[in-house]
Here is the input.
Amino acid sequence: MNGFTLDSGQRDLRDRLNDIAQDAGTPRSLYIHGPAGRGKTWIANTTFEALPTSRKARVHFHGFLAALHRCIHHHRSDEDALGRAIDDIAGDSHVLFFDEFHVHDSGDARLLTRLLDRLFRRGVTVIATSNYAPDDLLPSPIWHHLFEPGIRLIKANMDVFHLDGPTDYRTLPQDHSRGFASGTWTTASPARHPAPAEATTITVRDRQFSVLASRPDALWATFAQLCEAPIATIEYLEWARVYPRWVVTEVPTFAAIGAPAQQRFINMIDVLADADVPVTFVSPHTRDAFLAGTSARPDAFRMVSRLQLLQSAA
Here is the structure.
């Protein structure tokens, strides 16, 4: 596949996805889970792009929720605003690829359960990738019961494929010529650092955010500006669309910041990696020192895997 040698688990997944691609009827949905960096998204993406139909859609967890909330607001006067919003996003798709399916928020649990129920009732084939087995979704013992209806829908309507293996392929030598993997983690002061006069604000939906500089070729901002301010994932999505490169300075260790800033940084990495935006992270700490202190945070394992794609420079 694309010149790469697949391991045995990846070959089995490729074959299972090819069954979906070659099924002329309504193929059964597939839920793919396993540790970060094992190739779930890459293999599913490759198959999805090759599907011989235009009636397909790909959504990423963060982008989907942002779009869903916008559509719900648009249909707020409708009796079934959520249902209308789901139909807007799915359109007339026969296949929906949902990348990085996870549930940590009790409010998201209701939305995602309704999404699955509506898609399966419409006969849409869902391909989902996740770092979590179905029973491990919404892992909080306090809130887990809220997503049990969604878990039952997954088990009743989807085959479950566990892709595992000893190797996180993001830890192997990478092609650093393009995309997110062309970014850098550095402890050195970056060239062309903005002068104080370049400090500005950028606006998303009438909300203003301070940054070091807003250049046509790059967004410059400190970690505090991007992660300690009350910024939602929808802002990261917008800026990933607008700015072809980011520079994030003054990145601290997780021990020095609170849980909300930690989660924003994890979400930001999710968005930037999915959008394939190259980033220069500037920190007084080496990448390895930074990563060593992140393991206790939920979903940090995915961030750790992705940051290992970057070049590391002193």
Observations:
- DSSP finds eleven helices and 13 strands in the chain.
- The chain has a mean pLDDT of 90.
- The domain at 8-167 is CATH 3.40.50.300 (Rossmann fold).
